């Protein structure tokens, strides 16, 4: 094949131009961050500080009141919490304001930078316009959104948790209490564990940080040259240089995170003493947790198997599941080589989507979007059917009574998806006709696993019940209009007279109500739920106008 005339010179010119183009984008993004960043910091810092200081007296008093009132805690637990809580409650405003400052700085700097590099990887009409304006006003709006979500967290979510703590317990439940005889040994373990584990875990993190730095650079450069891994997608290529430059900051953040988490790992020694009723097990945990952390970092960095550090057993049952690092705690470092290789191959196959998911996380999750779109669509249908009316919406807006719209409507939307998935005999959860969510292709985070796991179990339970169309239609009325606490509540309202079948369905509905009630405490839920209520209110107004015209 003949090379076109001047091809070599054009190729060299293009290669020489690339570094200048990259540094131009980098300089422009940093320039925007220097202008927009301080504004975002001021918005986040002042807004969050006002919320923290304004609500701090209420938080202090209400926390003490709920702890003293609750029946979920025993007498010794109450006394310890009432004695120990003044310190964290006094430190809360200081730590929260400092955290707001760090969040504002990070958000104000990185959002304009990422938006500028995103503009270079997208197919846009006027790229120069987007280079200069992307990440400016959106960063300011995002700062206001952070303050709004933080306000929902401090106001709605906090009081919701406290109300749940104050609720009466069932007759078969026992209050959570600790043995008074174990308190001195637990406190002694904390005094020993915190300084020892903080020092040793931080030392391990500092020792492994060069490995993380150079292994990360090596992998990023290999993926960039070979167009593999996170740089397989065209939109991700402009992030290559930025990721390589910012990788030392990621390593530093990992070391700082290890230092902060080491305090909590030290405090957990008291729980070991109480669970195993042994001071000796608490001392063994102080040594073993450093070895566990070392092995965990080795797995993340693909270093040697296990750990060379000693690991005494701190559980009487050696096969006990290790809730600290999410793996089984066994003496020694024996691992199945085949399963580890399979895990690494799966991890490598997932790398091509890692940065793509990170970019999507700048927007609400797909599942989150689906839930509110489904609630909006079902809300419109239920209004036309008379199961939701203007009174329900007005009570939610004016009086805050939002159980029907905030609990029952999302629960019915999720139940519809469960019924559809059960009929289709799918492995996952059908959220649209052409989109199925499973534990394998969904977002990789604990919140998603907590959300999708119980739903998949409920889907299998519904599949075994073999509901017909009449029963499914009745469920819509029952879930929106009744509390569904006892099988007798469905007398004359549900086609089946089988009380066991009714109890199973009511248990599923109660679990759905519990899941949705927990979801309402997520700050973003409140913001999007208010938008949903406004949309339904406008729809109700339009519907009433149509009825008047008729």
Describe this structure in words.
This protein is mostly helical. It contains 17 helices and four strands. Strands 1-2 form a two-stranded antiparallel sheet. Strands 3-4 form a two-stranded antiparallel ribbon. Helix 3 runs antiparallel to helix 4, helix 7 runs antiparallel to helix 8 and helix 12 packs across helix 17. The longest helix has about 60 residues. The chain is globular and about 75 Å long. It starts with 6 loop residues before the first helix and ends with a helix. This is Steroid nuclear receptor ligand-binding. Keywords: Membrane, Receptor, Transcription, Transcription regulation, Transmembrane, Transmembrane helix.
Descriptive keywords:
550 residues; mainly alpha; two-stranded antiparallel ribbon; 4 strands; 2% strand; globular; Steroid nuclear receptor ligand-binding; receptor; transcription
